[in-house]
Amino acid sequence: MIEISFNGALTCVGASAILIDTGIEKIVLDYGTKVREVPPKFPIPINGKPDYVFLSHAHLDHSGGLALFEAKGERVPVYALNCTKDLTELLLHDSIKVSREEGIELPFSREDVLKTLNAFENVNYKEEIKIRSGKVIFFDAGHIPGSAFIYLEVNGKKILYTGDFNTIDTRLINKCEKKLPEVDILIIESTYSDRNHPSRKSQEKELISIINETLARDANCLIAGFAVGRLQEIILVLEKYGIDYPLYLDGMAKKATTIITKYKELLKNPNELEEALRKVRYIHSIKERKRAIKQPSVILATSGMLHGGPIVWYIKKLHKNFLNSLILTGWQLEGTPGKILLETGKFVYENLSFDIKMKVKRLDFSAHVGREDLFKFVKKLSPEKIFCIHGDHTEEFASELREKGFDAIAPLANNRIFKID
Ligand SMILES: [Zn+2]
Ligand SMILES: [Zn+2]
Q: 188 CA to middle of ligand 1, Å?
């Protein structure tokens, strides 16, 4: 028998955390935060010390709570790809910095983060990790560099936890692993269970045409994106269509890019990225920012949801001029300045609140599987039992799956622990 508890990402995105208790071992899959809540929210605490954490990828909604174990004095080995370790280090330190700027002290210290990083164990895709209850294997999830499906065979049960995944190739990385083992229990993300993505090509073309039109007006084009994966993807799109204008990169994406380029084996075309990066100028100071916006240029900056980071500086400088453009390249979480801007045309962040005159457009360069492929993925695996998490519509998704004959459930706060024989 095993017991599976869902300690986060229940009917929402954020604070992913799953506990699998095999009777002899406690196995934790991801331990994230609800990033955009101030202060950030952590998963429901795990009862007792876990034996292992297996980490699907570096994004804070999966990794942001990892240092809480060290803060409690628990040394727990964290299994992940090396690339995930490096990106997690960057994001955890940044989360402490951002919280301090907001006047919040997180319940763990920089020292706890360092100790957590020392407890990491390297995993490679398709490598078997033996544990007392059975074995664990990571497969490429195609979401960001280093992202993984986590497959477990414990007490005779075959479990697949998808983490976040993508079934289509992007310019940066390949799609997820297609040859997966048979699965009894599937724990699946549901971010886009309610909608399909527009074609990549249409989004790329629109991006390029906005840039061309903006530059033709002698204006600045500001592109907001996530530091890990997204802005590197955008750089590759720009390279494909030819970069013959000043192109700048600002914010945490600089360090994330340096990490990602280290792991060539995880990239679809590392040489192309290297080639493209030669045309990108990194911004390190306010003086350089001022210089960058003095001429027609394209500026890539974090944060992707306009919630802090250098993008705020650029918006303040550029928003009054209707010739300038602002492109959002990702999904905007409810309540973030990005979402508020799309709904109201106003930029609202901390003590700032003003109307934006520059052109604003959101494009979809999502790294998550879209609705149609999500259903195809489930059908192909045809597991005995499905748990739907990590999405705003997990209950609708589970009910649609039940209509198709699957045994599916969306764990809820009052129904989140399941015993499986
Ligand atoms: Zn993710
Ligand atoms: Zn996620």
A: 13
**pLDDT tens, 186-213?**
999 999 999 999 999 999 999 999 999 9
pLDDT over threshold 90, residue 411: yes
How does the average pLDDT of the chain come out, rounded? Answer: 96
347: β partners: 354
191 Cα: distance to centroid of ligand 1 (angstroms):
10
Separation of 391 CA from ligand 2 center, angstroms? Answer: 9
Q: Is the pLDDT of residue 84 over 90?
A: yes
Q: 407 C-alpha vs ligand 2 centroid, how far in Å?
A: 24
CA 164 to centroid of ligand 1, rounded, Å: 5
pLDDT digits (tens, 9 = 90+) for 364-404: 999 999 999 999 999 999 999 999 999 999 999 999 999 99
CA of 65 from ligand 2 middle (Å) equals 13
User: What is d(CA 346, CA 333) in angstroms, rounded to the nearest whole number?
Assistant: 16
Q: What are phi and psi of 372, to 5 degrees?
A: -60, -45
**What is the pLDDT averaged over residues 86-108?**
93
- Would you say the pTM of this structure is higher than 0.70? yes
Closest ligand (CA of 35): 2
**Residue 38: what pLDDT?**
78
Write down all domains in the chain, each with its CATH number in brackets: 2-195+367-420 (3.60.15.10), 200-362 (3.40.50.10890)
What six digits make up the tokens of 90?
């960057």
pLDDT score at 23: 96
Q: Which ligand is nearest to the CA of 228?
A: 1
Distance 420 CA to ligand 1 centre (A): 28
Q: How far apart are CA 204 and CA 188, in angstroms?
A: 28
How many whole angstroms from 59 Cα to the centroid of ligand 2?
7
List of residues 6+ apart from 234 with CB closer than 8 A: 207, 223, 225, 300, 329, 365
Residue 57: pLDDT over 80 = yes
